[in-house]
């Protein structure tokens, strides 16, 4: 059955990426017609869901994997600076939407929570010292505190320091400007705004089964209604595939040359979630450590204060695992069916080069409850098993891509893949995706809507939505301070009020 309707834009997946792109497009060009298709019967039920997403508000304040140590012992900080800049762009866009009344109650999706990096052992302390030096001159990291003093650290994170060996060499950095973001709640607010706009339709329990480009350049989309089993076909000028782990199979079906050679490596996760209110109240920060050797970046251990649906929670993890599913609610055939003649070489090459990762994942899958508690006690020395429950977290698909030298490489991050004609784009990868969604979608618009992005009308609207648009906060200290002050006021970010810190 074919639909006569021909929306200007089709967005696949109702997560933070599609929601962000939809709002941007609707604000930039209100007459655009948009249809959004989500395979689940809920909005933001996969990677954007609060329990499936770390929700750190990835700003590179505490995530040590964004500041790798170089062979000479110094620290590379360019990636951290880029991520910190991107998160400020996201906050500015959200603040604009709140200020204009397009979305409500910022406290429902963003809270102030200090971000702390914590390490122990001589070499790691030296590394953190070098990291502090590398970041301290950047205005995006203004206010970062460093300490090796046990008493000071006990004030910053009492649960982490209680019962710790007083002779253990430790160090930490602390950023009060850190946040906790519920991307599920934010996505649902963005989708509510879109739903109420003329020319926008959102369909849940609708799965896109096929994508094919017509001779005239338009895309033919086949969608199945999971409730009735009926299929329909519609045509559109532009498609965005923002389906999380489900993006790769759909990109492959599109047949665009730019998608050839990409593969996916799925990594699952689990959390230990605290069930003891007294323990939860002792902690009010996001404390990130260093990843184990061979561990993927998404497995960086962290003790994480979260506020989900107005209730404070405490999580530790994630513990990595392996599943052939590309989505939490996916199929075990996802990985086998994604293997094609054009990506098998990159996937085999990446697998050969990442044997330590495979070994690490096997060890994680076989880990006993006692083993998980041992990892937790490195952060919480006096943790008791009865205070923590194991829950399944989200599913991530890391990118495998062609590489001239190695045949294929496994990459950690996000990547936009777009056709040369700009009529289709897909987002692959994982962290820090959600936190940098606005910058990622601006990059997509520059690729696929180049003419409009260069027009005075769109530039003016973007400047209205993101006052720092076109400028780098890292190069403009005064502007960085001004933007943080404005977004903090609009988004009601206040450490003392939100998480009860009084030190």
From TrEMBL:
**First-level EC class:** oxidoreductase
Q: Which UniProt keywords apply?
A: FAD, Flavoprotein, Oxidoreductase, Tricarboxylic acid cycle
Q: Which reaction does it catalyse?
A: (S)-malate + a quinone = a quinol + oxaloacetate
Matching entries from Pfam families are given as: Mqo
Q: What is its EC number?
A: 1.1.5.4
Q: Does the keyword Oxidoreductase apply?
A: yes
**What does the record list as GO biological process?**
tricarboxylic acid cycle
Tell me which InterPro entries the record gives. FAD/NAD-bd_sf, MQO
GO MF, one term, reads: L-malate dehydrogenase (quinone) activity
Kindly tell me the pathway this chain contributes to.
Carbohydrate metabolism; tricarboxylic acid cycle; oxaloacetate from (S)-malate (quinone route): step 1/1
Q: Which cofactor does it need?
A: FAD
Q: What does the similarity note say? A: Belongs to the MQO family.
Q: Under which name does UniProt file this protein?
A: Probable malate:quinone oxidoreductase
Q: Which organism is it from?
A: Chitinophaga rupis
